[in-house]
């Protein structure tokens, strides 16, 4: 193997010719966006769109400044700064792979208590968009009410000490306060997390927090800032030793490469108070009807991930592709999708719910994408409440089939008990793991103990159709095992006693 080329601005010309590199002068870029949450997804998705715009000779005053608000983000910052904020993207098609170095990000603010550097960067009038990927569970939503969680310790701190906040939202408010005082005007807050109405949720979080300390500022933010809704889509696994080895096979020494599938989608509401890049010129879609796109994606892809991952964990399957290759899990996935999810999903231009299910099945089956069941099953307390339970409620309201969705919830409870069928332990994998594990153990004897977690299920435990189906399926999982239970659902599609 030839010597590796350490990734940097100075070495771009030394990379192998099969590696696509930036076609623009990075020194001529100027910042227009701060992005909080520089994980793999952002670098494979939004940053790629910006990079391709730069390649087309467009919007060079919209470069990205990275930011993070967690102490562990400092490690990512160090890695990226060491390579001039360049990232190698590795596209993994089942038949081949390719490498592209992207350079849309040109800086990364220090990660520090109080976030003074981040606040100063966002207060700079050159910044016209502040974007975020902070995970679905990062918006301080009260699981029981669905509203803003004013009692969370982080929120209480930021309300009491708004100039030295803990949260990204507190930092955004502090920056907007400085901009208003200096007469610089507002910026757009762009949520890029998998949440239905994500812009509305970001607005609620920021305005609600601002109102707790400065209602006048909160009103100004609500009136002058824009928070467009958006739908984002690209499967981006975590980076580990295999991904490091893959980037090295291209001759590149990159400490933070990103692998991704050969598919991207970005649908955005065109509501930007301080201008925006021309992302539509590189494949993004601007529309007034983001809701239909995000509903299709969240209900079929994101809820579909939960259909697969909990069963996969219980059976000890390593990846989502392994789940799709498992005959009972794959059949379970298709039956739930076609009979219990698709009826509650409207078509979008060029795509029906059924054709989208086929697309998702092909994407999930891509063995080149090593997307672990553990990653997908993480934070089920946010993902089930956000992705699965809304469909379940719609099904109950319409008197439509919900037995498969009840089985999805039973599989989550079975997984949270903490052991696989082979006897191995499932390590804690949720911010609320202790209480989930306690409830799951109690539910092994009394299944309805799981549904009594009102912070997740609300009044669903009182719905006899759902409660009876859940109780049946969880009892079956413990008595007969996962494969037998999934096969029972495949054959009957309802409670075995009624089949």
TrEMBL record:
What protein does this entry describe? Mannitol dehydrogenase family protein
Name all Mannitol dehydrogenase N-terminal domain ranges.
Answer: 32-281
Lineage of the native species? Answer: Bacteria, Pseudomonadati, Pseudomonadota, Alphaproteobacteria, Rhodobacterales
Mannitol dehydrogenase C-terminal domain mapped to chain residues: 289-478
* SUPFAM superfamilies recorded: 6-phosphogluconate dehydrogenase C-terminal domain-like, NAD(P)-binding Rossmann-fold domains
Name the domain of life: Bacteria
Record key words, sorted: Oxidoreductase
Q: Which InterPro entries does the record match to this protein?
A: 6-PGluconate_DH-like_C_sf (IPR008927), 6PGD_dom2 (IPR013328), Mannitol_DH (IPR000669), Mannitol_DH/Oxidoreductase (IPR050988), Mannitol_DH_C (IPR013118), Mannitol_DH_N (IPR013131), NAD(P)-bd_dom_sf (IPR036291)
**Protein's organism:** Roseobacter sinensis
UniProt cross-references to Gene3D superfamilies, sorted A to Z: N-(1-d-carboxylethyl)-l-norvaline Dehydrogenase, domain 2, NAD(P)-binding Rossmann-like Domain
């Amino acid at each position: 193997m030839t010597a590796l080329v350490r990734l940097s601005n100075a070495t771009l010309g030394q990379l192998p010719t099969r590696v696509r590199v930036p076609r623009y002068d990075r020194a001529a870029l100027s910042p227009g966006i701060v992005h909080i949450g520089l994980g793999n997804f952002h670098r494979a998705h939004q940053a790629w769109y910006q990079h391709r715009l730069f390649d087309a000779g467009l919007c060079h005053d919209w470069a990205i400044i990275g930011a993070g608000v967690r102490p562990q983000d400092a490690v990512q910052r160090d890695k990226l700064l060491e390579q001039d904020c360049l990232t190698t993207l590795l596209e993994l098609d089942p038949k081949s792979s390719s490498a592209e170095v992207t350079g849309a990000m040109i800086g990364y603010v220090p990660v520090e208590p109080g976030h003074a550097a981040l606040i100063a960067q966002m207060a700079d009038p050159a910044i016209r968009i502040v974007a975020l990927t902070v995970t679905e569970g990062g918006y301080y939503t009260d699981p029981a009410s669905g509203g803003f969680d004013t009692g969370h310790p982080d929120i209480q701190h930021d309300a009491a000490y708004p100039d030295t906040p803990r949260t990204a939202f507190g930092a955004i408010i502090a920056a907007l306060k400085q901009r208003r005082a200096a007469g610089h005007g507002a910026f757009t807050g762009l949520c890029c997390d998998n949440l239905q109405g994500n812009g509305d949720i970001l607005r609620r979080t920021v305005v609600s927090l601002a109102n707790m300390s400065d209602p006048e500022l909160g009103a100004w933010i609500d009136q002058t800032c824009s928070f467009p809704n958006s739908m984002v889509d690209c499967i981006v696994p975590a980076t580990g030793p295999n991904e490091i080895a893959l980037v090295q096979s291209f001759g590149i020494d990159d400490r933070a490469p990103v692998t991704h599938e050969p598919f991207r989608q970005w649908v955005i509401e065109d509501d930007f108070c301080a201008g925006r890049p021309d992302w539509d010129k590189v494949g993004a879609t601007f529309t007034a009807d983001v809701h239909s796109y995000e509903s299709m994606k969240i209900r079929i892809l994101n809820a579909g991930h939960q259909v697969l991952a909990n069963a996969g964990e219980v059976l000890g399957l390593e990846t989502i592709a392994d789940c799709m290759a498992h005959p009972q899990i794959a059949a379970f996935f298709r039956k739930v999708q076609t009979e219990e999810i698709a009826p509650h999903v409207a078509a979008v231009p060029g795509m029906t719910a059924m054709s989208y299910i086929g697309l998702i099945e092909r994407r999930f089956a891509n063995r080149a994408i090593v997307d672990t069941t553990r990653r997908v099953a993480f934070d089920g307390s946010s993902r089930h409440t956000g992705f699965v339970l809304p469909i379940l409620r719609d099904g109950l309201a319409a008197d439509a089939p919900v037995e498969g969705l009840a089985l999805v919830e039973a599989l989550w409870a079975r997984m949270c008990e903490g052991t696989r069928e082979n006897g191995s332990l499932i390590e804690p994998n949720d911010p609320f793991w202790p209480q989930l594990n306690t409830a799951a153990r109690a539910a092994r004897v009394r299944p309805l103990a799981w549904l009594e977690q009102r912070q997740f299920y609300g009044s669903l435990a009182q719905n006899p159709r759902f409660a009876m189906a859940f109780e049946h399926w969880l009892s079956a999982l413990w008595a007969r095992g996962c494969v037998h239970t999934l096969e029972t659902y495949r054959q009957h599609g309802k409670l075995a006693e009624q089949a």
